[in-house]
Amino acid sequence: MRFLNPKTDFAFKKIFGSETSLDILISFLNAILKLDHPYLIQEVDILDPYLAPKIKGIKDTYLDVRVRDEKGRSYIIEMQVLNVAGFEKRVLYNACKAYVNQIGRGDHYLELCEVVAITITDFVMFEELAAVQNRFRMRAEDNPEIYHGDLELIFVELPKFRKSEEELESVYDKWLYFLKTAGDLKAIPRKLSQEQAIVHAFEIANKAGLTEEELEDQERREIYIQDQRGAQQFAESRGMEKGMEKGMEKGMEKGMEKGMEKGKLEGKLEVAGRLLEKGMAREEVAALTGLSLDQMREIEK
Fold it and tell me: pLDDT by residue for the chain (301 residues), tens digit each?
C-alpha cells in the first residue's frame, strides 16, 4: 500500500475534513488536548483557502478544519508545511475572528465560547522551546497561574518529534507519527494498527482508493511544496553568501583602517622621539604631534 502525505492540504482535508472523519477528529482532538472523555462534535466546516483573508506572502498552502463541540467551543485545526511571512499573525487573526464572529450586534458577550486554534507545522517555529507541543494563553504578568482561557493557541512542531515506532506509547505519539511518516509508509505499522481511528485515517489516505484526478492533484501539491522549499533554501543560502561577502569586505576595510592608524601612530612616535632627543619640552612635543603626556613619558623611558 501507498498512502497520501497527510501534511499536504489535499490529503489533510480528505483525512480530517470529510463527512466520515468524525471518529478521526474526536481521537485526534482528545490526544492533542490530552482529554480522557470523547468529544461530541456537532459541526465540521472546511475553510476554503481561496476565500480566506489574503495576507502578503501567504500562498494557498493551508487549509482549516473547523470543529464545534456540544458546548459551543470551536476548534480550528490547521496543517502548515511552509514557514511563510506573516504566518503566526494569520493564526492569531483566524482565532480572533472565529471568537468575535460567534455573536452579532446586540448579542450578549456572555454568549462567547472558547476558541482553540491547533496548528501543526512541518517546520520549527520556536527554536528556543524544546517541547514538541506548546500552548499559549493570555496570562497575568505578575501571576501566570491567572489566565484567560477563552482564546488558546496550540502549536505542534513535527520536526521536534523524533520517536521511532518502538518508542510510541500514547495515542498522541501515534497521531504525530502518522502525520510525520504516513506518506513514506507502505503498510500500517503494528503499533498504529491498535488505534481504530488511525487505521481509518490510513484507509482514507490509501492511494488505491483515489481517482486519477485526485492523485494528480496530490502530486501537484507535493511538487509545489518541494519547489517552495527549494526556493526558500536557495534564498537562505544566497543570504548567507552575501552576508559572508559583506563580512569579509568589512573585515578588510577595518584591517586597512587599523593598519593606517598604526602606521600614523608609529610615525608620530618616531617624530616625537627625535624632538625630545633635541631637548624640546615634552608639553611642546605633545602639542605638535597630538600625543598624550603619558606617551611622552613612555618615549623618554
Answer: 788 888 887 788 888 877 788 889 889 988 998 877 777 666 666 554 444 443 334 344 445 677 777 777 888 888 888 777 778 888 888 888 888 888 888 888 888 888 889 999 999 989 999 999 999 988 888 877 777 778 899 999 999 999 999 999 999 999 999 999 998 999 999 999 999 999 999 998 887 676 677 767 666 666 666 666 666 565 666 666 666 666 666 665 665 566 556 667 777 777 778 877 877 787 877 877 788 888 878 877 7
- Residues contacting 125, CB < 8 A, separation 6+: 83, 88, 155, 157
Distance in angstroms (rounded) separating the CA atoms of residues 86 and 52: 14
- In angstroms, the CA 296 to CA 280 distance is 11
Joined grid coordinates for residue 106: 446586540
Q: What pairs with residue 116 in β-bridges?
A: 75, 152
* Torsion angle in degrees (nearest 10) through CA of 143, 145, 146, 152: 120
Q: Are 168 and 177 in contact (CB under 8 A)?
A: yes
Give the Cα separation of 274 and 277 in Å (integer). 5
